[in-house]
Amino acid sequence: MNRQSVINYPCNDSETGKWAALYVRLSRDDDNEGDSNSIAHQIEILKKYAKDHHITGYKVYKDDGFSGTNFNRPGFQEMLSDIENGLVSTVIVKDMSRFGRNYLEVGMYTEIRFPEFDVRFIAVNDGVDSEREDNDFTPFRNIINEWYAKDTSKKIRAVFKAKGMSGKRLSTQAPYGYLRDGEGNLIIDPETAPVVRLIFQLAAEGNGPGKIARRLREMEIVTPGTLEFERTGRTRRYDPEHPCFWLSSTIVHILNNRDYLGHTVNFKTTKKSYKSKKKIQNPEEKQVVFENTHEALVSQETWEIVQKNRENRRRPTRMGDMGLFSGLLYCADCGHTLNLNRTKSWVREQDNYTCGTYKRKKGKCTAHFIRAVVLEQLVLENLREVIAFAREDTEGFVRQAMSNRMAAQMQEQAQARRTLEQQERRIAEIDGIIKRLYEDNISGKLTDERFCKMSADYEREQAGLQASVEELRKSVAACEQQSVNMDSFLKLVKKYTVPDKLFPELLHAFVEKIVVHAPDKSSGHRTQQIDIHYNFIGEIGLSHSIDKKEPA
């Protein structure tokens, strides 16, 4: 977009030392009006008007490609600055619509700001001149101009929606990691695609956005803004002093972008009003996804692992490091996460995990204490068994995984159905109670005040139950539709060899969560059950117990 704000003419009014401001504007929305509203045509009209009215000193202020509802235009702001500095005697425009299409702001400038600075306002084609007293129709003209802007915006939105619903990509820019071919389709960028894959790999290993950003800065990889400047000359996101300074917000944006799965996602953002330039994130249910429209940079398995890791954000210890199992361990009794405990004075064998509820609220739960090295050994052994089982007897592994999952689903469904039936019966009971209360109130057995209080209490209980029932119904329906994603799990098995040790990428790729039970000392020995839930398949039926003699 070619944009020039001011054309200077050195001649000033000989008496006042001020000049006339010839203001011209063209919006991209006005393109369909041809040459009638072109910048050159407007300048020609205003110069002729100045000549005919013996105006010898003037400046032409120009905004090319700016909407009439937006008053933060460079040429317009330049003109306002000159007005406030006492350099302008008159503002002349072709017509009111060139000045602006927001009737409130137009009125504020023409009826308040300009008179305050003793500035005359003229709209040539509309016959508006602030020195005359016959401008009563001007406010209505401003409203009509705003209606035009609103109607134009509505038409553009309709075209935009039709394009988006057809599956065509709405964004004019290719996401970082991609380029556009001659037809506008996304193709992989060989320079930046490896960076995107690295970001997702680091996130899959359990690293947060801040740590990933620091890693990229250390590797001296230029930011998307720097790369855009190098390729196009655009400076909107370019920081010349810090060309490799990645921000965590940039990493978050990349990790949230479903384009990397090979999908086209339209209507990601919206605006509250055609006057507002602020974009608001649309909820996912209002976005439209067209799958497999281009080559993916990230597999579905990696994507799900990353999103799970981000939901269970890991927090570093006071020593600044991250526990291997942080974000994966849960208490079997209260459901809270287990926290890593370690100090500089301890050897590695002393590091341990305890229930977060127990640490914060003594007496609300038990410690569920487990040493990190013991847990690591147990999980490694279990993982080796699972991978070996899946490799050596794939059919048997699939049968057992499916059987275990179905049993778990049936148990979850049965519990949810029991609770649902109980709450539905209670809702029906409350209906009967409220009916009897109403009858007692009508017959005079119950005062109005007492009736209102009691009925309100029952209605609150009923409203809470109805909300719970809706959630339970969704839960039951989800259980019925849930299935084991065996293909995804078997892909992981093929990707990794039977491990000799645990490392973050491997652990987060396979393990969804680990549930730690309270130790049992009834046998005279300390035993502790650990349940390992795997991504895509849940528990596989290879849960083990730790048997240790006291003390722990």
Structural write-up:
This protein is α+β, with helices and mostly antiparallel strands and 552 residues long. Among the domains are: 6-154, 3-Layer(aba) Sandwich (Rossmann fold); 178-309, Putative Large Serine Recombinase, Chain B, Domain 2 (Hect, E3 ligase catalytic domain fold), CATH 3.90.1750; 410-485. Helices cover 45% and strands 14% of the residues. The strands form six sheets. It has a six-stranded mixed beta sheet with strand order 1-3-2-4-5-6, with helices on both faces. A four-stranded mixed beta sheet has the order 13-17-18-19. Helix 13 packs antiparallel against helix 14 (448-481). The protein is extended and about 110 Å long.
Question: What's the arrangement of strands in the largest beta sheet?
Answer: 1-3-2-4-5-6
Give average pLDDT, whole number: 79
Total helices: the number is 16
Helical fraction: 40-55%
- What's the total count of β strands? 19
Structural class: alpha+beta
The CATH architecture assignment of the domain at 6-154 turns out to be: 3-Layer(aba) Sandwich
Q: Judging from the principal axes of the Cα atoms, what is the shape?
A: extended
* CATH structural fold name of the domain at 6-154: Rossmann fold
What is the first-to-last residue Cα distance? Answer: 72 Å
CATH class of the domain at 6-154: Alpha Beta
Percent range for β-strand residues: 5-15%
Rg, nearest Å:
34 Å
What tags apply to this protein structure?
Rossmann fold; Hect, E3 ligase catalytic domain fold; 16 helices; disordered N terminus; disordered C terminus
Entry summary:
This protein has 552 residues and is of the alpha+beta class. It has helices at 39-52, 74-84, 96-99, 103-116, 138-165, 193-204, 209-218, 224-232, 248-256, 300-311, 356-360, 372-392, 394-443, 448-481, 486-495, 504-510, and strands at residues 6-7, 19-26, 58-64, 88-93, 120-123, 128-129, 178-180, 186-188, 264-266, 269-270, 280-281, 288-290, 329-331, 338-341, 352-355, 370-371, 511-516, 526-534, 544-548.
